[in-house]
Design goal:
37% of the residues lie in helices and 14% in strands. The protein contains twelve helices and twelve strands.
Length: 301
Amino acid sequence: MANPIRFFVLNTGAKMPSVGLGTYRTEPHLTVDLFTTAIKVGYRHIDCAQIYGNEKEIGDALKKLCDDGMVKREDLWITSKLWCTDHEPEDVPKAFNKTLQDLQLDYLDLYLIHWPVSIKNGKLTQPNIPATWKAMEALYDSGKARAIGVSNFSSKKLGDLLEVARIPPAVNQVELHPQWQQPKLHAFCQSKGVHLTAYSPMGKKKVLEHSIVKMVAEELGKTPAQVVLRWGLQMGHSLVPKSSNQTRIQENFDLFDWSIPEHLLAKFSEIKQEKLIQGAGFVHETLGAYKTLEELWDEKL
């Protein structure tokens, strides 16, 4: 029988639902309907960020669902992220409180540094990750952020942070899918007790149209999207797929009563690797910390 993989246990001891609903570019006017569908289907993990510009509408939708008795706050896992403009230690609690206010919540289950990048007055500046992290630790100490973590951190940047952190990051949320599998980052995070979450877990259309993905989907009687998502769970990371289509929201959650057998799972190692989300806007010859993409990611792309 398939291992359902419904939760992953973080280094805080918390159980995070393995599949969440991504909210990047979710159109505000669709939020209530999409969230109603998602909660009915079984989603309990919602992945937000201040920069997505829709936390107020998400807050309204969550409040309505809780008020209507469809779900209880304690059964939900809500993640949000600190944007690059709020890295100064005094700005971290302000940004966090704004997110809490917009989402109409008393606490977050997880709060992440969105990028290892700092921006002030519209310009890239030198990030001071240890100072920003100290402010994140204060949020954890307050109980208002029940877990803290990072996003888009390479093994090197994560390693540097772990050397100075009093509270280690619980999660690193990064681009992960069959076309960008990141085995070294996986191994490093596993060795340090940091859980990996995949954003863009279906990559782009190219990944879903890959001949290996299509072959496995056909053999198992599943959609390419389901196969790619189930691959992620079996690799040991949580996922936050996004969709504005109610049928696909349902399909993307139908992952728990089947699995990809080992002989088919092995085929995924044949897929040519290519990073799709590069963060080129965070690279500059004179401003900020990174002159090249190699410096941002600490590897050749």
